[in-house]
Design goal:
The complex is a heterodimer of chains A (132) and B (1091). Chain A has 132 residues and is of the alpha/beta class. Chain A is 40% helix and 22% strand. Chain A has five helices and five strands. Chain A has a five-stranded parallel beta sheet with strand order 2-1-3-4-5, sandwiched between helices. In chain A, helix 2 (42-51) runs parallel beside helix 3 (68-77). Chain A is globular. Chain B has 1091 residues and is an alpha+beta fold. Helix content of chain B is 46%, strand content 25%. Chain B has 35 helices and 39 strands. In chain B, strands 6, 7, 8, 9, 10, 11 and 12 form a seven-stranded mixed beta sheet that branches. In chain B, strands 14-13-17-16-15 form a five-stranded antiparallel beta sheet, with helices on both faces. In chain B, helix 1 (3-24) packs across helix 11 (277-335), helix 2 packs across helix 9 (241-253) and helix 3 crosses helix 9. The longest helix of chain B has 59 residues, at 277-335. Classes of the chains: A alpha/beta (132), B alpha+beta (1091). Chains A and B meet through helix 1 of A and helix 27 and helix 30 of B.
């Protein structure tokens, strides 16, 4: 039976940021196997992941309702996603202990305005790790 | 033999003898040769011829013990009397001059022995001298040898009787050769010589020899004769010439033998036992008589013997009885000291017993035994009444008893009371008593007692009459029988009749009181000071105190009540007043909590108040009479003693303090002087001043505390007098803050020593102070002595000090505080700015991100190599290369890059800004100083202000980072702030320099130094002069125009480096040589203090 497509989720309350990032990812063939989905809030994202888990989530920290860090923790706890990438507008962000325990590192943190090519590189690396 | 014959014979014999003897005498026959007139005169004056004689001039004339006129002259006189047939009245005289005077006056008719002298012949006739008595010199037998004449008496004391004729003669004879000493009489003169008082005495032989013999002055002799003789005559008053002639005739009739006989009889001097012829004759006669008598008696006695024997017994018995009775009488009269008198009224004669005389201390016969003699002894006051009583008795027939009391003169001249009691025992035919016999009883003692009694009675009477208290007596029924006049006055009655006899109970307001009094009397016999309420006549009451008792008769029966009472109204009032006064004084005495003691100079307590005794847990009664020193410990006692002595000595109060038994006492001792100003008593007052002392100590400590606070306070505290702005006090901090030493400031006007940079502020300050009474946190600029200005704040308050209005000013230097505040404000600003910035940054990042992402998409979608692009182009039949060519020609790519770059730049700025402003999250951590410096430079170049005004882009920034920079702990943003500030200042300085700096350049160097890193920021701007350099780090100091800078930047930077990071910051500059700012940060661990 063919597995359903894995998801790569982009979580950001800013619509253009979200859509442009998804558009960029869609330009790369290697991500064709993934379903590229976007959510505007942590709650919505968790809902979607419950339907179908993700291989990776790109998470904005400043969200309405639940903030990005709490989403990551919740999603990781429910094993809804393998990897997470933080994409934040805050000037300085240091990974809290909880996220570090999930295996996240500095390289997983990107600051707006981001160079999307760098994010793609990181996504590629993480998925490769996942595969191997 | 018959008695009568016997006695006749005896008598005859006797007569014969006497006659024989007498016949030897000169014939005494009446003389008949008188003339008729002479005889007539003599007959007429027979009984009244007075002869006055010297009572005491023996041997010539003198008076015997029984009043007889005797002496040689008396003999002559007797003969003359016989011849004349008269008897003279013999009148003795003690005074020769009186005698002469009475002769002159004629009271005396004649004197028997008187010397004819010229002045006497004036008033008297003198007969021929009948005797001549030579004046002789008498001396002691041993004093002189042989015969003495005047010359032998040279220088001697020679006596002579004063007034005698001899005196004149002796004085004449003296002629100054010897001292003439008058004596009063012959006896005295002789005795004086005998005792040696005088050497010689000159007097007539007769008197001298008489007294020599009489007084047995055996050591005297007649030493010599004088020329002078007493030629004695009979002197007759010229008033009686007939008498004179008669006497003369009679005298001449007397034979010289008779005179000689008399002379011999009276004057003999040999005195050695030889008898005078006269004496011999008498003795012979006596012997003859005795012999004859004995012969007769012998013959008769034999015959009478038998008769006598028979009669002897009866006679003896009678005699015995008589003797007994006489004895009894004698004893009785002696025992009762009573004298017997026998008086014959008819003749005036009397008999007085020896006891009669003895009672008066007189010799028997001292006065004449006559009525006159007795009367003469009576007290003059009694003579009349006694005489009256006696005459009355006699005249009334001498019935019953004669009784009279009279005083009689005693031998010593005092008077004695005598009771004369007698009875008539014989009467004459007419019934007049002829003989009264009686006794004189000594009643002196009785009289004395009577007198005492009278005097005593007088006293008591006086007492009763004059006493102010009332004496009363009632009878047994209670009726008033006696009342003193004072009682009458008290009652208000006029006379005794009103009150005497009234029942005593009627004088009481309440008769029951009398009953009570009686009961008390019954019980105790006497009442003392019992109070009763009496009633006056007018009904008003009188409060009285009565002392009374029963009085009894001899048998002890109660006769009534007697006593004394007095009006005690006043006393009661006085008692009440006294009681009140005493209560007041007692209250006062005991009110004080001081100990008050009245004592004598020895310390014995006379009075002490309650508190004084309570202090020692005693009652006043326990302490009175004891010595105060007994109640004190030895040291206290000694101190008190010496203070007491000081008080007594100086007579002024003394005070002292002492600590005793843990309490402080303040003691004052006052002297109490008596009327002579001598301290007799002392009053001491002792106050427990422990609390006061404690309060004083507390005050002192408090004062010390506040004094310390004042001195040590870190604020400047000063007191200024409002009136004249005189600074009256300042603490040590005054100098610290103002720079003026205390000595310069205190005592000077605060206006003068002006610490106010702006005097107008001072006026404002004072105005506010005066209107509100206080000022709080009044901020002003203080100009120190060295001219520097500090920002200070003052709080002041109006106070009254010693009656003057002043204010206390507390000045607090807030310069540093302000800096701090500014720093805080700045940081707050920055913080808020920071959070604002963070918010902005966050918001901007999203659109920036979109821009960036969009450009990336654009670049990707124009990339001809991208598969999806190729596919899309192929679908359209678009030649991608041609498209790319077009885009290139039109420089689309360039513009896309521009957008990208701008977006990058924008985000860079945002990022930096976020970093910079996130102070609160900024921790002290190991810093990368070069990076910080770079960021600062970046910031500076982004600075809008810099750009606009100072064209930062034109400035060349050179960063020179040294090697081996140690890691420093710092707060990144703060260091950034400092570097940024330095850069800005440099840029502004260089831009604003005139002329503007050419080729402006800022060199930033980082070097490693000992224990740290040094950062240098050097510009090549205009530099700063000395003054600006000094002030440049000061807060609010700025060289920029107003509004451009706050003047805080450098001071805050300085604060951050030094206080915040423990580093150093300084500068060096010179005008025209630019300025270099140095920062040194210590290489420390991040755990430094965060400013």
């Amino acid at each position: 039976m063919p597995e359903p497509k894995q998801t790569i989720l982009v979580l950001d309350d800013e619509e253009r940021v979200r859509e442009m990032l998804l558009d960029y990812l869609s330009e790369f063939k290697e991500f064709d196997e993934f379903e590229l989905r976007g959510a505007r809030s942590g709650e919505e994202a968790l809902e979607m992941l419950r339907q179908r888990s993700a291989a990776l989530c790109v998470v904005d920290l400043r969200l309405p309702g639940m903030n990005g860090t709490d989403f990551i923790e919740s999603a990781a706890a429910a094993k809804l996603s393998w990897h997470f990438i933080v994409h934040t507008g805050s000037g300085e962000f240091s990974l809290p202990r909880a996220l570090q325990d999930l295996g996240m590192v500095e390289a997983d943190v990107f600051y707006k305005p981001v160079d999307m090519a760098e994010i793609v590189t990181r996504v590629r690396t993480l998925i490769k790790e996942r595969r191997s | 033999m018959r008695k009568s014959v016997l006695f006749s014979l005896l008598g005859a014999l006797l007569i014969t003898t006497l006659y024989a003897g007498a016949s030897l005498d000169a014939a005494d026959r009446p003389f008949v040769g008188l003339s008729a007139e002479e005889r007539k005169w003599l007959d007429e004056n027979r009984d009244s011829i007075v002869l006055t004689y010297e009572a005491n001039f023996p041997p010539l004339e003198f008076r015997t013990k029984d009043g007889k006129y005797t002496g040689l002259s008396a003999d002559i006189v007797a003969k003359i009397e016989k011849l004349l047939g008269v008897t003279f009245q013999k009148n003795p005289s003690d005074d020769w001059n009186d005698q002469l005077a009475s002769l002159e006056s004629g009271d005396t008719h004649l004197c028997a022995e008187i010397i004819r002298m010229p002045d006497r012949e004036r008033y008297a006739y003198f007969t021929a001298a009948y005797i001549s008595l030579p004046l002789v010199i008498i001396t002691t037998a041993k004093a002189f040898a042989g015969t003495v004449d005047w010359s032998d008496l040279y220088g001697r004391r020679v006596g002579v009787v004063s007034g005698y004729a001899s005196e004149a003669y002796v004085r004449d004879s003296a002629r100054g050769r010897f001292t003439v000493v008058p004596v009063s009489n012959v006896q005295e003169g002789l005795r004086s010589v005998s005792f040696g008082v005088l050497d010689a005495f000159v007097e007539n032989l007769a008197s001298a020899s008489y007294y020599i013999e009489k007084d047995t002055l055996t050591n005297l002799r007649v030493a010599g004769a004088t020329d002078y003789s007493y030629r004695l005559s009979i002197g007759v008053s010229r008033k009686y010439p007939l008498l004179y002639s008669a006497v003369q005739k009679a005298l001449s009739e007397i034979s010289s033998e008779d005179i000689e006989a008399s002379r011999k009889r009276w004057i003999s001097l040999s005195g050695e036992g030889m008898l005078s012829p006269e004496t011999m004759r008498l003795l012979k006669l006596a012997a003859l008589f005795v012999v004859l008598l004995l012969l007769c008696l012998a013959g008769i006695s034999y015959l009478l013997k038998r008769r006598l024997n028979e009669k002897v017994e009866s006679l003896r018995k009678a005699q015995q009885e008589l003797l007994e009775q006489t004895e009894r009488l004698g004893l009785a009269t002696e025992a009762t000291n009573s004298g017997v008198w026998d008086f014959y009224p008819a003749t005036g004669q009397a008999y007085f017993s020896d006891q009669w005389f003895a009672m008066l201390g007189l010799e028997p016969g001292a006065v004449e035994a006559t009525f006159a003699g007795w009367i003469g002894l009576l007290h003059p006051e009694d003579r009349t009444s006694t005489d009256h009583t006696l005459m009355g008795y006699i005249n009334s027939g001498g019935q019953g008893l004669f009784e009279a009391e009279y005083r009689m003169r005693q031998a010593d001249g005092s008077y004695r009371w005598v009771l004369g009691k007698g009875r008539a025992i014989a009467w004459d035919e007419s019934g007049r008593p002829t003989r009264i016999v009686g006794l004189n009883l000594d009643i002196q003692k009785l009289k004395d007692v009577q007198e005492e009694l009278r005097a005593s009675e007088e006293i008591y009477r006086s007492v009763i009459q004059n006493m102010q208290d009332v004496y009363f007596r009632t009878d047994a029924e209670g009726g008033l029988i006696m009342l003193s006049p004072s009682g009458l006055r008290m009652y208000g009655a006029e006379s005794m009749d009103e009150v005497l006899g009234q029942p005593i109970s009627s004088f009481y307001m309440a008769p029951s009181e009398r009953t009570a009094l009686l009961a008390k009397l019954q019980a105790g016999g006497v009442v003392y000071d019992h109070e009763i309420l009496l009633r006056r006549k007018n009904g008003s009451p009188v409060l009285a105190a009565i002392t009374a008792s029963f009085y009894r008769d001899a048998a002890g029966n109660i006769l009534g009540v007697e006593g004394i009472f007095r009006d005690i109204t006043e006393r009661k009032q006085a008692e009440e007043a006294l009681r009140q006064s005493e209560a007041h004084i007692r209250a006062l005495f005991n009110a004080t909590s001081d100990s008050a003691i009245l004592m004598d100079c020895g310390g014995v307590i006379l009075a002490i108040n309650e508190h004084g005794a309570q202090r020692r847990n005693l009652h006043p009664e326990d302490m009175i009479g004891r010595c105060i020193y007994d109640f004190l410990p030895p040291d206290s006692a000694n101190l008190r003693r010496s203070q007491t002595m000081e008080t007594v000595r100086t007579k002024t109060p003394s005070t002292y303090e002492e600590l005793r038994d843990g309490a402080y006492y303040f003691i004052t001792i006052y002297p109490i002087l008596d009327s002579d100003g001598v301290p007799r008593q002392l009053a001491s007052f002792s106050r427990d001043i422990t609390e006061r002392k404690q309060a004083e100590e507390a005050l002192r400590q408090s004062e010390e505390k506040f004094s310390r606070i004042f001195e040590m306070a870190p604020e400047c505290i000063s007191f200024v007098r409002l009136r004249d702005s005189m600074r009256i006090a300042a603490n040590a901090t005054f100098e610290t803050i103002t720079g003026y030493p205390r000595e310069e400031a205190v005592g000077r006007s605060a206006k003068e020593l002006c610490i106010w940079d702006d005097p107008g502020m001072r006026d404002e300050f004072l105005k506010r102070l005066q209107s509100d009474g206080h000022v709080k946190d009044f901020e002003f600029l203080l100009r120190r002595k060295d001219g520097t200005v500090r920002r200070v704040v003052s709080s002041a308050q109006l106070v009254a000090i010693a009656g003057e209005q002043c204010y206390v000013n507390i000045i607090h230097d807030i310069t540093e505080e302000r800096k701090m505040q500014e720093v805080l404000i700045q940081s707050e600003k920055m913080m808020s700015l920071g959070s604002l910035a963070a918010g902005i940054a966050h918001e901007i990042n999203n659109p920036l991100g979109i821009v960036h992402q969009a450009v990336q998409h654009l670049l990707m979608r124009t990339d001809p190599t991208h598969e999806k692009n190729k596919k899309a182009a192929a679908d359209l039949g678009l030649d991608m290369n041609l498209l790319q060519q077009y885009l290139q020609d039109r420089k689309v790519g360039v513009y896309l890059e521009d957008i990208q770059a701008a977006a990058q730049r924008a985000s860079g700025i945002i990022r930096n800004m976020l970093n910079f402003s996130r102070r609160s999250e900024s921790k002290r951590q190991m810093c990368n100083l070069p990076k910080i410096v770079e960021q600062s430079v970046f910031l500076a170049s982004s600075d809008y202000d810099l750009k606009k005004s100072f064209d930062f882009k034109n400035i060349e920034i050179v960063l020179d980072v040294g090697d081996n920079l140690p890691r420093c702990g710092c707060t990144e943003t703060e260091i950034e702030q400092v570097i940024l500030n330095l850069l800005r200042n440099a840029a502004q300085a260089m831009a604003m320099a005139t002329p503007p700096t050419v080729n402006p350049r800022i060199d930033i160097r980082l070097r490693a130094v000992d224990a740290g890193v040094r950062i240098e920021v050097a510009d090549n701007g205009p530099g700063m002069d000395e003054e600006v350099q000094r002030k440049v780090l000061e807060p609010f100091f700025t060289t920029k125009p107003p509004g451009v800078g706050t003047g805080l930047g450098l001071s805050v930077s300085f604060f951050i480096i030094t206080k915040g990071h423990g580093g150093r910051m300084w500068l060096s500059s010179a005008p025209g040589k630019g300025a270099t700012f140095f920062i040194e940060l210590p290489a420390e661990n991040p755990e430094g203090s965060h400013a």
